[in-house]
Structures are given as structure tokens and as C-alpha cells.
Amino acid sequence: KKMTLIALFGGIESGLIYALVALGVLISFRILDFPDLTTDGSFPLGAAIFAVCVTNGINPWLACLAGAAGGAAAGMVTAWLHVSLKILQLLSSILVMVALYSINLRVMDAPMIPLNGEPSVFSPFIAEDYSNQFWVQPLIILGFVVVAKLLLDWFFSTEAGLSMRATGVNSRMARAQGVGTSKMIIIGMALSNALVALGGALFAQTQGSADVASGIGTIVIGLAAVIIGENLFPGKRMLVLTLSAIIGALVYRLVITFALGSEFLQSFGVRQTDLNLITAVLVVVALRLPYIKRYFKRKRSS
Fold first, then answer.
1. Where are the beta strands (DSSP E) in the chain?
2. Where does the chain have alpha helices with state H?
3. I need a labelling partner for 33 at 20 to 30 A (CA). Which of 12, 116, 209, 265 fits?
4. Alpha-carbon torsion, ordered 98, 103, 109, 115, to 10 deg
5. Euclidean distance between CA atoms 221 and 276, whole angstroms
6. pTM above 0.85, yes or no
7. For residue 3, what pLDDT band results from cuts at 50, 70 and 90?
8. Residue in 119, 125, 141 with CA at minimum distance from that of residue 58
9. What is the rounded CA–CA span in Å between residue 230 and residue 287?
10. 241-264: string of b/e by CB count within 10 Å (b at 16+)?
């Protein structure tokens, strides 16, 4: 019983970490209409910067901020390649993602940095025998997610935030209204990747190590969360969009936790290594959901 409870809390914990990623992906994909693969590099970049800071005696809260700042810088480079050098959005993000692999290795000086025994943002709240760790960590990460959501909701109600939304909807029209679209894209991409890198920094603390390969498939997970959330909670208002991305991430992770822990599915040969395959299938199903809903509606009305 305790094991299933710990597995459930584990699913919620990683769901909340990926909720930060989903909020970042929401900004790039949905609000700016910018297909951004930088996330696969900025997620481990956040972890790498955090690990290097903490192992050098820097406060873990400051180390988290430093990780987020690193992600913001990566996002700005992607935006700059597109805005100033006129490189295609997708290509500029792929170039930065590829470059970040080498940069992350250079930052860490090794493919992995163990963090066992190093302080984390959870350390002050965890009991000496780790008995409360399984629920304390998700609770603190929830705090990060709630703050991020509230700040985003506030930002997108300001003039700058509305200008950014206008840029994503129709950049030519936004320019005609006097919006500095290039600046908006750079700020938006910085914001997006800062959230992703913050997720990476928290991920490293829950895993007990920073790993250069931890970012593989991050963009797919973020997209899955956004798409699942949109189908569960359709809406155009910012409050709903951010909430749906968070809930989508939680649903996604809990489905994955169930799929990988289900004896029924294991009897069909489903293994831990099938994580990315299950994710891909989930995204396809989520993308088809609106069509399936419409199909059944038509069936019912006919």
C-alpha cells in the first residue's frame, strides 16, 4: 500500500516538475507560435548550472535562479538567431539545442554530477529519517508551479504581455499597431526557457544528480502536457490556458506512472525503457481527441 502511495506521490512530483516545462512550452508554441526545440537543451542546462553552483557552496535557492537565468539566455539566443539572422524558427532552435549539448558537458565537466549530500531547496523541510520526503518534495514544487502560474497570469494581463500575445497571433498586424515584435519574441523565448531550466534544476534535486542526457524528449513531454490540458480544459483566457497546461502535465505523468507500473501492461511486454514510445502514443491520442469527440457527437445527433 505504502509503495503505491509513494509511486503516486512520485508521479505527482514529476508531473509538477513537467508542469513548469509545460508552462514554458505553452509560451513558445501556443502564445508565440514558435516551434522551439531548445527545451531539450535548456532542461539539462538548468540542472547543470544548479549542480555546479551547489557543489561550489552556493545557496540552492540562488542556484535554482542561476539555472533559470541560463535557460533564459539559451532562449534569447534561439530568438536572436531567428529575429536577427532570419534563420527559420525550428532550425534556430535545433541549432541551439545541439550546441547546448556541448555547452552542458562543458559546464558540468562530466556527463553527470552526483548531488547526494549536497543541500537542496527541500533540505530544510525534510525529516532526518526522510520519512516525509515523498510528500514534502511535491508540496514545495507545487509552490514553484503556483508562483509561476500567478506571475504568468499577471504578466499576460499587462501591456507587454498583451503585445506578446498579439505578436503570436499576427506579427504583421502587431507591428502595424506599433508593437516591437522582435523584442517580444526575445522576451517570450527567454521566459519560456527560464521556466524549462527551472524545471531541470528541480528535477536534478529530486533525482539526486544532474545528467547531461536528462533533457531527451523534454519537448515531447511539454507538448503532450499542453495538448492533453487543452483537450481537458478548452479555453482562450490566460488563467485557463496556464491551469490546463499544469493539469495536463499531472495527468500525463500519472498515466505514465500507471502504464509503467501496471502488471496488466507488463504482461504485454511494456518496459521502463518504453517511456518515450508511450509518450509519443499519448500525444497522438491527445491530438486526435477533438476529432474523436466530434465523431461521437455526430453519431449521437444522427
1. 112-114, 209-211
2. 2-25, 39-55, 60-83, 89-108, 133-155, 159-169, 171-176, 181-207, 218-232, 238-261, 263-266, 275-301
3. 12
4. -90
5. 9
6. yes
7. low
8. 119
9. 10
10. bbbbbbbbbbbbbbbbbebbbeee
